[in-house]
């Protein structure tokens, strides 16, 4: 399968509501993205294929630095602010320092899975991972909403249910077709549960939720390497790439059996 050079989304009347085109170099590396109103993002790579810089549509330049093992360790934004990472010998993030120099430390078990996160601004977040390396329990404090959430999965590892840790009641359900997410049943623990339909891109990554009236209630626009550019809407949707579940308190996704080596959002 070749590189996708253009993507267009149409509404029910056939009108194009979003379009995007991509340009690749002779090695198949993405070097330019053109969106609506000719907004252009340019990307630069080094000789071994590492992304070294991105130029945003408003000419903001972001730089990326790597260690001798080709692991991403620093991101610099257009104002000179830096995000710095420290990784251990297993390529796992142990500390994350944001642009305000606030440091987050990750405590891991013997399998390298994060079981506790300690941060000055978010307090302590505790997670329990089951024997199949799936996120089973998440407890948050000093954030809104705070509390404990339980997760249940099918045999292939897809999340089916989120349950309230205080009473065990189901609060959200997921509907799948093979490996593709089709719908979310939200507010299950209320008198007005809501069925939300999931629309996804060619990577099986959700990009839009619509309700029973076909109204858009959640929409995400992503940057070329998976970072969120913008999310709009009143609904909540935490599925990302296949196998990922977004953790709002960290701003990073939990991943099951997915360990990319050079991306900033790697946690598990």
Provide a short characterization of the protein structure.
With 268 residues, the chain is mainly β. It has no helices and 23 strands. The strands form 2 sheets. The protein has a 21-stranded antiparallel β-sheet, with no helix packed on it.
Quaternary:
single chain
Element-level helix/strand string: EEEEEEEEEEEEEEEEEEEEEEE
Mean pLDDT: 87
Q: In which range does the helix fraction lie?
A: under 10%
Radius of gyration: 20 Å
Percentage beta strand: over 45%
**N→C terminal distance:** 29 Å
**What class do helices, strands and sheet pairing give?**
mainly beta
Low-confidence stretches: 257-268
How many beta strands in the DSSP annotation?
Answer: 23
Envelope shape: globular
Number of helices: 0
The biggest sheet, with number of strands, parallel, antiparallel or mixed sense and barrel status, is:
21 strands, antiparallel
What report would you give on this structure?
- With 268 residues, the protein is an all-beta fold.
- It has a domain at 1-62.
- Helices cover 0% and strands 51% of the residues.
- It has strands at residues 6-10, 16-24, 30-34, 40-45, 51-55, 61-66, 72-76, 82-87, 93-97, 103-108, 114-119, 123-129, 135-140, 147-153, 159-164, 170-177, 180-186, 194-200, 206-210, 216-222, 228-233, 244-247, 252-255.
- The strands form 2 sheets. The protein has a 21-stranded antiparallel sheet, with no helix packed on it. A two-stranded antiparallel sheet has the order 22-23.
- β8 and β9 (93-97) form a beta hairpin.
- It is globular and about 55 Å long.
- The two termini are 29 Å apart.
- InterPro entries: RHS_repeat, T6SS_VgrG/RHS, YD.
- It comes from Phreatobacter oligotrophus.
- It holds the Pfam family RHS_repeat.
- This is YD repeat-containing protein.
